[in-house]
Amino acid sequence: MKTIIEPFRIKSVEPIRMTTAEERDRCIREAHYNLFNLHSDDVLIDLLTDSGTGSMSSRQWGGVMEGNEAYAGSPSFYRFEAAIKNLMPFKYLVPTHQGRAAENILFTVVLKPDSAVPNNTHFDTTRANVESQGADAVDLVIAEGVDPDSGHPFKGNMDIAALEQFIEERGVENIPLCMITVTNNSGGGQPVSMENIRQTREVCDRHGIPLFIDACRFAENAWFIKLREPGYADTSVPDIVREMFSYADGCTMSAKKDALVNMGGWLAMNNEEWAVECRNRLILTEGFATYGGLSGRDLEAIAIGLEEVVDEDYLKYRIASTQYVAEHLAREGVPTVLPAGGHAVYIDARRFAPHIPPLQYPGQSLAVELYRHGGIRGCEIGTAMFGKRPDGSEAPARQDLVRLAIPRRTYTQSQMDYVVEVVQEVFARREQLRGMKFTRQPRALRHFTGHFDYVD
Ligand code: F0G
Prior knowledge:
Helix content is 41%, strand content 12%. It is an alpha/beta fold. The strands form five sheets. The protein has a five-stranded mixed β-sheet. Strands 9-12-11 form a three-stranded antiparallel β-sheet. A two-stranded parallel ribbon has the order 1-10. α5 links the parallel β3 and β4 (136-139). The structure holds ligand F0G.
């Protein structure tokens, strides 16, 4: 088979500032070993997130000039609305400046302190937004979803039996909504099958619970369905997307992922009563109903991004380029979550550095070393991110991963080859990695702003 090439050529470039290992050693110390504190100029390959870090197309930049900045009723809003409804036909649409604003508005309106929200796996901001209402965020992904060795094709699936049991125990009256995250970001960027979305819908229907999709990476999820789920090989990606959303009552979305833009999001739903309250909340916190927290130009870029992201040549390249990194690492024995997710490669830090106990954050230690050694910025998704409970106690997270998230349409194959080399070199001397501790941490979302140091 021939190399799957980038289905675009580069029209505008952004220089990378080269750094030395000595410089990086100083930078990371000054950042208190928290990669979020680095100046991005000091990073060579930035794989901290795939969120808002991708490249827009020339068509999107053209759309930016067409943006209409009317306060109310901008044509850009109607183009944005039409592009979303073409794929996700919900009745009411609330534009927001990014995904977490949509989560915040939704949960403020529908949750009470004794509520609970089941999800395959909540992303960190989703969990924090549920918990900030005093409610419980409950993760019910299938067992294979937390087994890095399982070859299950849809490791993001909801555990249907566990969902049934949870609803029974907690009581329908305490569960205002159920969510499914596609793809399952915190569980390794793993997809959810159509059959599983359908089954989740059936359980929700039986109990009268609305189902919302956290839609961030919907197109990547649809591509996995096309590749892996029997019966979908000949279905177009837009049709797969439409079927996925036909089982839901609403969605939250970060346009910074699969709408191929640098900023934006939305909340959509069919329930009119909720929509009216959400819209009021939007006007209070984000902006008027036809722009939310966004400019007209952002709405245009999103409308065009939604057409480009369901293009099969794009998705084929996108998923192949993530798999390329994962497969090359696996070949050298680096423990990663396999099969590879859609937007990121997840290194299993607990197995990479088994000598570091989870409460000494092996993922953080590895992420710091990848930066020091090669200027690569990844992100710990493990005990530093999830180990602290709302009551202040601490326990190991289910997994300690380092996520190398790949921005869309941004890095070339030789840059990815460099990433593979750096990880391999750190792997070759992995026993030198040392445990870490927090020297300062805020009450919530401590991984963003906390300070670390080495244990000894
Ligand atoms: N849901 C999921 C599954 C996400 O991955 C994110 C963001 C959000 C919600 C929130 O969206 O950032 O626009 O407010 N994930 C980014 C990441 C930050 O790095 O995975 P946002």
